[in-house]
Amino acid sequence: MFPFADIFAQAKSQEAIIKFDKEWYDFGKLKKGEKVFYDFKFKNVGLSPLVISDVDAGCSCTVPEWPQTPVLPNSTAIIKVSYSSKDHNGVFNKAIRISSNSSTPTKIIRIKGIVK
């Protein structure tokens, strides 16, 4: 048997774990030029502090804000996402990539809607 298996299993069970109330949000129909916001609420259900190192939306129309300090076990926090429909028409579906020390180091949340 691998001598470090128990140590690895113990370390794995004590990781930070990010759990979202909702992983996507539909803004529905927006007017061109409208700026909207949504707060993605999450909880650290793990046993170690959760540190979010980066949140990337991939374009300037979608701007995330996230906690800059560790989220303690059993604590909740939000990632606030704003979307500007100023330069867009039609359907949008944006992925926001979260990098952290969670047991799942990369997590994707999404916003979507239609700009009329």
How would you describe the overall organization of this protein?
It is a single chain. A hairpin with a 5-residue loop joins strand 7 and strand 8. Helix content is 8%, strand content 51%. The chain has 116 residues and is mostly beta strands. The chain starts with a helix and ends with a strand. The protein has one domain: Immunoglobulins (Immunoglobulin-like, Sandwich), CATH 2.60.40. The longest helix is centred in the first third of the chain and has 9 residues.
What labels would you give this structure?
8% helix, single chain, four-stranded mixed sheet, mainly beta, four-stranded antiparallel sheet, Immunoglobulin-like, 8 strands
Q: What is the β-strand count?
A: 8
What's the tally of helices? Answer: 1
Strand content: over 45%
In spatial order, strands of the major sheet run 1-3-6-5
CATH topology grouping = Immunoglobulin-like
Order of H and E elements: HEEEEEEEE
Report the major sheet.
4 strands, antiparallel
Instruction: Please name the fourth-level CATH homologous superfamily.
Output: Immunoglobulins
Shape: elongated
The CATH class: Mainly Beta
N- to C-terminal separation?
62 Å
Number of domains: 1
Helical percentage: under 10%
The chain-level structural class is mainly beta
Q: Would you tell me the overall average pLDDT?
A: 91
